């Protein structure tokens, strides 16, 4: 019952947003910004026409039932190259960001940490560099995070490790978890003075 | 004689101030399109002969020097494309009476346009777009009688458009889009008889479209999209014979579309969508022979689509979505061979889809959704070979889907849902190799699901729900590697079992098989790692639910009405048989359990039926030897107000409140009135053979599983008073490792040090003690009663706190092993040996460490908080088969100093 209530509330607020959203095409703009940064030899993004009211009729873009908000971006295995546009972070309803198996390079924009609704982010099998942004700690709905087979490197931010992920794959990257000792960071050094801690743990 | 400075240097910092000071005869300074940095030197103003300053497209920063106003010969000042030029436009520029071009676009110029610009009587181009200009457009600009181009778009200009602009007889291009302009478009604009292009889009303009526009016979573009302009589209606009672009969409326009617009023979684009236009679409639009794009969507247009429109041989886009258009789709549609995008969705169009649609060889996007179309889809559609998107949904279309659809090899989305289509799903759809979404739900399709659909190698979404499909799910569907969005087969008459191959769909997010007659078990679904939503209710599934994370997270609703589908049991065999009888009552009981358990204070783990029986007897007889001589150990972590015996007594069927994936939960009322939940774990390996022996070993396995589970659910549920969620406890499940019980230890340690319960009313924001300690970083987390202890002890407590935080690391891999913890605690202990009294944290006398406390009503000396957990570990390795891990909420009396 509570579910029904809340889902109808959600529905109402979506309706309410509908009119507002129609006035602008910010999600479309974000996707066009993405498109502009990648090379698309297969012309898979050919249907992405920025003059349309919403991106909901573009291929490989899925909107919610009201055709208002983008909830999926399925661009796996499209031979895309180039970098990830920070504007992708402006898709507040996005649940699935599937960009695996391309040749995307550069860093993962920290703006992707704004994707509050994200359930799955598949960036695996690309040429991405740098680290996973700590901003990913905001992705509270995220269940699947696959960044494996990239050139990512560095110590995975604690915020990311604290996520309640169902799947987190970072194999074949140079990412690593922080060492145990770093857990003490939250305490002043004085708290550990006059000890012999420094040595091995695990 | 004129002197020019045109450096070929790629990079030249403007630092030549002293030099400029002497170049009195310099006339042209052309430094544009380099990578110059630095500021515009004030000394430029000494070059009084300067006529052209071209600095655009560099990386120059800083303000425009007001001293430039002294350059009375200056004709052109162009500094656009320097993103770091800031500050206001100096009023003094109004003194440059010979200025014809002022260009500051794409800078960070701010402030308002100085009225003094109105003195620039020779100004032809004022180009200050994409900056941070604010304030109003000064009416004085109307004095710049030579002005041809006025580009002020993408700023923050407010106020209204000054009517004085109407004096600009030479004005050709007026671009004010994307500002915050209000008020009406001045009627006087009609006096600017040279105007070719007007763009006021993306403002907040109101009022009506000036009738005077009709007098602008040179007008090519009139764009006011995204404003609040009301009234009707004036028919006089048809006098602007050169009009090519008419974009008035997203306003409040009402009334009819004037038929006179048909006179605009040069019209290429006409956008009027998102207004309140009414009446019918004038057939005269068919005379706009150059028309390429017509979008009248989201209005209140009525009547039928005039056949004449389809005589337009250049029309590529026709969008009439969301109106009240009725009547038939004219047969003449076939003559509009240029059509690429045809969207007539959400109207009241009746009749059938004309066969002539097959002539539209360029058609890429066909949207006829949410109308009242009837009859069959013509075979001729197969000729529209460019089609990528087909949306027939929400009509009354009937008959079978034509086989010719299979020749549309470019189709990516085919949505025929919510119609009256019948017959089989054409096997030939398998030829649609580009198809990514196939939606045929809510029809009367019958027969089997064609196995050939598996050839749609790009399919991401397959929705065949609510049809009359029968037979079993073809195993081949498992080959569609790309199927990631959804597989919805619900509400059909499918039978048979779930093919094992379905387990290959490891990217699938949503699976709905509900409301069919399927049978067998759900094992093939256990490997669908990406599933977020699953519904198999209302089938005849039986057997056990796969024991993996997803299944534990799903609500019972997703499984309802499946006779014989038992709750989470790892293996088949006796355990399942035992459960089946209780299924009907199970969900009710679980609900009851939640209610009952609101008063709940504790979780206990009690193992092994035979062990229990034995234990009951022995406890009564022999209190002191608990431990060695027993087949299990009783290891409370905190003070208990009840005895094991009391617990045992309650393990009878009458007290069962529910069954979880790892055991039966009993409601147990203690002598002191406390109500606790007791979970008895399932034996996990049962054969038909020697029950006793097998169960004993099974007991051990399920014990370790439970201990792992406990660790991995972070104890938030277990420790919360009045917020018990047995059913969803696995919702929090993360990776199970042998480190998970270390977490429990960390929590206990934190409880001891802070004197708080895991969820404690004194912790602000309802934080868990773990999160609270992480957030605070100092002594303030310690139990206040401990703060009076000597400093050296407090230091040790902080060290222990550090260890506790290690233990509650959210990543199990990062948690230390108990061996490491012991080593670390020993380190603290070493330091402290000389402090005689304070041996609370670590030592705990060996005598009472484990379990010698039963006689005192289960009171465990609080000094041994670290010991029991280590012994629990030992218990595991010793194959002891019974343990009580009780984290009793009510025993907040556990405090370091209270001993």
From TrEMBL, chain A:
Q: Which Gene3D superfamilies match?
A: Ribonuclease Inhibitor
Signal sequence: where? 1-24
**InterPro entries noted in UniProt:** Leu-rich_rpt, LRR_dom_sf, LRR_N_plant-typ
Keywords, sorted A to Z: Leucine-rich repeat, Repeat, Signal
Where does the sequence pass through the membrane?
Answer: none
**A Pfam family for this UniProt protein?**
LRR_1
All copies of the Leucine-rich repeat-containing N-terminal plant-type domain together span: 24-64
Q: Key word Repeat present in the record?
A: yes
This one is known as Leucine-rich repeat-containing N-terminal plant-type domain-containing protein
Source organism per entry reads: Flemingia macrophylla
Taxonomic lineage of the native organism? Eukaryota, Viridiplantae, Streptophyta, Embryophyta, Tracheophyta
From TrEMBL, chain B:
Stretches assigned to the Disease resistance R13L4/SHOC-2-like LRR domain: 92-269, 342-568
Transmembrane region(s) = 592-613
List UniProt keywords, sorted A-Z: ATP-binding, Cell membrane, Glycoprotein, Leucine-rich repeat, Membrane, Nucleotide-binding, Receptor, Repeat, Signal, Transmembrane, Transmembrane helix
Residue positions annotated to bind ATP are 680
Topology within the bilayer? Single-pass type I membrane protein
The UniProt GO MF terms for this protein read:
ATP binding; protein serine/threonine kinase activity
**Which protein, by its recorded name, is this?**
Protein kinase domain-containing protein
Tell me the lineage of the source organism.
Eukaryota, Viridiplantae, Streptophyta, Embryophyta, Tracheophyta
